């Protein structure tokens, strides 16, 4: 019994030794891997290159450029982006302020980029190289903090830009403007229609169908406009086909513009006639005496023997009568 007990103890002892040996070997291998890691070796090399003084590590000694936006390589190695285009883009910077519209910035950026085409340079390669020049302040900081190489296409860049600067609150506000649209008192229909379309253009992801948009516009229009739409639709605008309804609204808005222009022109004509009347001091409408009296056109009679034959304008005649009455 004693011999068997000693044998079991020896087996357990040997197992413990083997387990400890394996753990030590694994720890040693892990330590070797960490020690030989390229980043660790680079850091250690940097540490070795530092001077021995206490403040040596307070200033950076190297620079690793971090680019979240990485343009693709181009086939044309000799291409050049003109400085004039860069200046125009820098003159239309987006700063990340709440009152700025990121969609407007993308539209303007695309418009400027369309002025130049370079052979051998793709749209992604061209726009991704220029887009950082169009950012300032908060937007510039956002671009610098992007993970390196996270954006390699223009579509990815636009999505990331809008995700950052087109807030959910902005979307909710514009959707409310659309769904609760109402034409203002004193606002012409063409002005109301343009304002309504501006809301939909500022929020292209509003989610409303064209039929829903037309129904919202109809409900929010003034009674006079609803009556015109119903009359032009044989009684009920809501029963009209969507495409025809959209065309009808466009035509009504255009006719409203033409009517406004006619009223302005007619009003300007009346105003000119009134000014002419005033300058003529009560003379007939349409007369405007811009010149001094011409002796060849004077009212002085050449018939000295019969001065009563002289014909005077009405106002001048009254003055003469008063003058003669004084004698």
From TrEMBL:
Region of interest (Disordered), ranges = 43-72
A Pfam family of the record is: Retrotrans_gag
Where would I find the Retrotransposon gag domain in this sequence? 129-220
State the InterPro entries in the record. Retrotrans_gag_dom (IPR005162)
Q: What is this protein called?
A: Retrotransposon gag domain
């Amino acid at each position: 019994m004693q011999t068997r007990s000693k044998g079991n103890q020896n087996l357990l002892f040997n197992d413990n030794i083997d387990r400890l040996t394996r753990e030590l070997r694994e720890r040693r291998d892990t330590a070797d891997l960490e020690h030989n890691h390229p980043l660790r070796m680079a850091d250690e090399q940097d540490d070795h290159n530092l001077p021995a003084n206490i403040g040596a590590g307070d200033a950076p000694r190297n620079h690793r450029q971090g680019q979240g936006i990485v343009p693709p390589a181009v086939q044309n190695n000799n291409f050049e982006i003109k400085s004039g285009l860069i200046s125009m883009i820098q003159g239309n910077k987006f700063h990340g302020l709440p009152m700025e519209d990121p969609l407007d910035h993308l539209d303007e950026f695309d418009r400027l980029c369309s002025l130049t085409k370079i052979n051998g340079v793709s749209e992604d390669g061209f726009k991704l190289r220029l887009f950082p020049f169009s950012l300032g302040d908060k937007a510039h900081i956002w671009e610098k903090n992007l993970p390196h190489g996270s954006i390699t296409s223009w579509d990815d860049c636009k999505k990331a830009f809008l995700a950052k600067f087109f807030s959910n609150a902005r979307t909710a506000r514009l959707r409310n403007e659309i769904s609760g649209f109402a034409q203002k008192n004193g606002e012409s229909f063409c002005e109301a229609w343009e304002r309504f379309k501006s809301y939909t253009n500022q929020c292209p992801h509003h989610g409303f169908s064209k039929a829903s948009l037309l129904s919202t516009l109809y409900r929010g229009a003034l009674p006079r406009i609803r009556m015109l739409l119903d009359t032009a639709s044989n009684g009920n605008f809501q029963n009209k086909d969507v495409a025809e309804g959209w065309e009808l609204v466009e035509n009504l808005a255009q006719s409203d513009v033409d009517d406004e222009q006619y009223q302005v022109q007619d009003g300007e004509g009346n105003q000119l006639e009134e000014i002419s009347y005033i300058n003529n001091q009560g003379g007939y409408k349409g007369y405007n005496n811009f010149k001094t009296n011409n002796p060849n056109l004077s009212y002085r009679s050449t018939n000295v023997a019969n001065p009563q034959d002289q014909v005077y304008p009405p106002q001048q005649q009254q003055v003469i009568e008063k003058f003669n009455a004084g004698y």
